[in-house]
Write a structure and sequence with these properties.
Layout: H1 23-33, H2 36-51, H3 54-74, H4 83-91, H5 97-113, H6 115-125, H7 129-141, H8 144-160, H9 165-183, H10 185-199, H11 207-224, H12 233-239, H13 246-271, H14 273-279, H15 296-311, H16 316-332, H17 343-359, H18 363-371, H19 375-388, H20 391-399, H21 406-418, H22 430-437, H23 447-467
Helix pairs in contact: 1-18, 2-5, 3-4, 5-6, 5-17, 7-10, 7-15, 7-16, 7-17, 8-9, 9-10, 9-11, 9-13, 10-11, 10-22, 11-13, 11-23, 12-20, 13-23, 15-16, 17-22, 18-20, 19-20, 19-21, 20-21, 21-23
């Protein structure tokens, strides 16, 4: 039984007494003080394993439905969905994984600490601002006026190089991620993914190019938001505690990030040059029916709503209120709008909400692991931990480590942003990219395929951040 002063859930990190004997002794002592630490981390580990197993689940669901259909045809019955197959399809949606395991976690909290504690943790302790913000900004960034504006700007760049698919590829992956430093990374991810879908993935690229582009996109978005101190979630977590401003980010991260993106693009372009060249001979994606051009004032209103959402990013009542006003404006200007897509943003928000529920209980081991490292091991440690946790959580926990010097502060953030493309959970915008581009992968996006494709760009940008 934990002593009364330690009865808070989860235990504050400063409530754990110092322990001699190294990191393993520290972690063992923390499990003895709060046995639920081990349970919460075990559930989180199962959720991560689940994300790497979704493809197998979907394949089994397809076989189950096919067998059900075959039996129905043999019996002369109408084809109907199989309940088990539909449930497996839901379980196999990567956006649902952490939400499903959050239910398991909530039940475990209730079992160990009581239902009142579970409710308090889920409703009062966990902050859902980031999932709500990503939902709103993703929906805004995917609107027709915003996407057409971004497409027109990037078309000017692509046409300078002939307007080929390869030129579009370079333009989108070079300029698009840098927009994340100004319109936020989730918005930049949404725009880049939509344009890559139109200009690259709609032409049915090879499997190698499809995954190489996906991994490069995720890595570039993760580092592309580091030109400012307010747009990348992992930077936002440390900017105020460590007094990092715009000037600091530009001089310490921004120019290195731009070089890293350029070098990573050049490397992947060289490796996939033949695949990109073949896209020029592929049939062009079907053009949409001629529609009236979007008036400039409507585009400016959309940009105004995006600016409001970014400015009020810490205040859900204000940016969600603004989003509701936007929905009304979108209905009033319907001739110049596509249907407002809310399905993908809602799923991405659900994914991130589940992730923060789990992440709030992982500080007991992440914080002492970070505190035990020196500069170079801390960089690599932050990179690897980012693959298993949202990188904003890693940097937030780093702010709780006492006496973390400037070089160590830099190393942990550099590692967190460098590793932000390795998995779908590594960076908050990644689920948005997966939701948009997943339809172009016939068998779904493989987590292992994403991991492998992101390794080379991660090495390149990581080397630029640490060696330049």
């Amino acid at each position: 039984m934990i002593d009364a002063p330690l009865a808070a859930f989860p235990l504050p990190l400063d409530a754990y007494p110092p322990v001699d004997g190294g990191i393993w002794a520290t972690l063992a002592q923390r499990v003895l003080l709060e046995p639920f630490n081990a349970v919460a981390t075990a559930i989180f580990a199962l959720a991560i394993i689940h994300t790497f197993s979704v493809k197998r689940v979907l394949v089994y669901a397809h076989h189950l439905q096919s067998a059900h259909d075959a039996r129905a045809r043999a019996a002369g019955r109408a084809l109907t969905p199989h309940v088990g197959a539909e449930l497996l399809h839901f379980v196999g949606e990567i956006e649902a994984v952490f939400g499903l395991w959050a239910v398991v976690l909530a039940l475990a909290i209730a079992w160990f600490h009581g239902w009142a504690t579970a409710i308090h943790y889920l409703s009062d302790t966990v902050h859902y601002t980031e999932p709500l913000f990503v939902f709103a900004i993703m929906a805004l960034a995917a609107t027709r006026p915003v996407v057409e504006l971004a497409e027109a700007m990037l078309r000017r760049v692509a046409m300078q190089a002939g307007g080929t698919p390869a030129a579009w590829w370079v333009a989108i992956l070079s300029i698009g991620p840098l927009l994340g430093s100004f319109i936020t990374e989730p918005a930049a991810m949404t725009i880049c993914a939509l344009l890559l879908g139109r200009q690259i993935y709609a032409r049915k690229p090879s499997r190698r190019l499809a995954y190489a582009t996906l991994g490069l996109l995720f890595v570039n978005i993760s580092v592309g938001g580091t030109l400012s101190h307010f747009a990348a979630p992992p930077v936002l977590m440390v900017a105020r505690p460590w007094s990092w401003d715009l000037g600091f980010m530009l001089t310490h991260f921004g120019w290195k990030a731009m070089i890293g993106i350029a070098l990573a693009n050049a490397l992947i372009f060289t490796l996939c040059r033949a695949d990109l060249g073949r896209l020029a001979a592929a049939p062009s994606p079907a053009s949409a029916a001629a529609r009236p051009p979007v008036p400039l004032w409507i585009t400016l209103v959309h940009l105004g709503f995006m600016a409001w959402t970014v400015a009020m990013a810490h205040y859900p009542v204000l940016f969600l209120g603004g989003f509701l006003f936007f929905l009304g404006f979108a209905k009033a200007s319907a001739p110049y709008q596509d249907d407002i897509a809310l399905g993908a943003p809602l799923l991405v928000g659900f994914f991130l909400a589940g992730l923060v529920v789990h992440g709030g209980l992982q500080g007991w081991w992440i914080a002492p692991v970070l505190a035990s490292m020196t500069e170079v091991p801390l960089f690599f440690g932050a990179t690897l931990l980012t693959a298993l946790n949202d990188n904003a959580l890693i940097t937030y926990l780093a702010t709780l480590v006492p006496d973390l010097g400037p070089r160590l502060q830099y190393a942990v953030v550099a590692g967190a942003v460098a590793g932000g493309g390795l998995t779908v959970i590594a960076n908050a915008p990644n689920p948005a990219g997966q939701a948009i581009l997943g339809e172009f992968f016939s068998d779904g996006i493989s987590p292992l395929g994403l991991l492998v494709s992101a390794v080379l760009p991660t090495i390149v940008v990581g080397a630029c951040l640490m060696l330049l």
